[in-house]
Hints:
The complex is a heterodimer of chains A (about 220) and B (about 325). Chain A is mainly α and about 220 residues long.
Amino acid sequence: MQLNDEPLSYYDTLELTADATPQEIRSAYLRLKSSYSKDNVANYSVYTREETDEMLKKIEEAYLILSNPERRKAYDLSHQGHSSVSSQAEHSSFRAEAAPTPIMPSISGSMSSTPEVDPFFAHSEADSIASTEQEWSGSSIRRIRESKRVTIEDLADYTRISKSYLIALEEENYQKLPAVVYVRGFLQQISKRLKLPTELVVQKYIERLKTARPDKF
Amino acid sequence: MWNPSSQRQIWAVGGGKGGVGKSLIASSIAYTIARLGFPVIAIDLDLGGANLHTVLGQQPPQKCLSDFLSNPNISLMDCVVDTPYPNLKMIAGAKDDLNITQLTEEKKYRLMQEIQYISGYFVVLDLGAGINQYTLDFFNLADTGIITVLPEPTSIENAYRFLKAAYYQRLLKNPMLENIHPLIEAAMTPNNIHGIHSPTDLLNEVSFQDKILAADLKKVIKEFRPKLILNQSRSQTDIDVGFSMKSVAKKYFGIDLDYLGYLEYEPNVWQSVRRMRPILAEYPNSRIALHMERICNYLIRQARTGQTLNAVE
Lengths: 217, 313
């Protein structure tokens, strides 16, 4: 299971530093495309097909942005806060990919892409749901999300969690959820975006998951 | 971690599967650094099938590792024999095939100790096949651990297994990480209750529990920098396997697997073993010899800048 292994930065995905030349980006892309293709013996026995497919998707996405000078510039600008993370990465063999921000914000640096002023934060309806919420079920998370007018796509974008996981999480479709370490990370990210009490959400949700799917533990 | 002497470098050649060229590569490395002018001792640690002497073109010598293992009064240096090649000495493997289970912890410890106290030499260890406590201990003891792999699924699978086992072993041996032993052990067990399936899961779980321990864990992982040599490449696709493995090691383990290079499949050259001559002595101008020299020069440079080597000239 390497679902949360996907790094936050496109440069990390392509195993490059932020100063990579277009030529380096292209050759890294081609090399990684081949590394994670289904007939490459080098990923045999480590990754499942789903995992390599997921990785290829990330590689494509990263290349789509970084191969285009304008898109890359826009990306760099919007991720300037992360440059400190990238320079730290030089000293750490783990980089962001093994210490993904989605799971460990305190290690990979602060979530600097979080807008300081959240237009949805002041929304009173959502706050009232949140303040009375006890169970933190998937459906209540969805209610709050919807009342804050955050679409699944927005949430997926912010948390870098795939839409299908987010939906499974809201539907409490445990069958479709990955191992609990990931679910925990997901919940932390979602809570962050929706400004929910992270610890409580994680605790309540994981408790239910534990009862329903003891095999996930 | 283990480095009582700065006067020597230990390089270990392993890789899990048998028949991937460990002995040939270990002997070629030893031969090449000796030829580059450094004193070398090659040690055959393949307990179950010692043949380093053969690939170095030697008859089984009188003195060997068995003497050291069976007699506490004989030191490891007493077992060193010369080879016809300048600067190159060796310790032949056990004569009678030793089962690893027969090697007591005490003997293993004594062997590890004495290897570390060798001074003034490059020490090249030829590890046996298999993934067991014995090969892992010596791999992790080395300043440089080299994994050899063939561009074949079976070999690659075993190389990853070896890497994974060596990786967890390293974590378990580190006193800094004592508090997370249960989690490391869980990570080594399939279907563990923590849902930890990979090194990344382990780090995530540790980070979730304790940020300071997670920082320690990352530090220990960072120190693990194994090397990779791809043997018997026949095409560019084969050569690229090494780059792909480097990427997988990064994404899966979070480690920098250093791809040292590849050795081409040259049937004539590899057949020199049949003539009981070191391949590089027989074919000093082959591409294999050339690549080997590049690899060794790179490693020597790294050893020097890493300050673990300064007196061996």
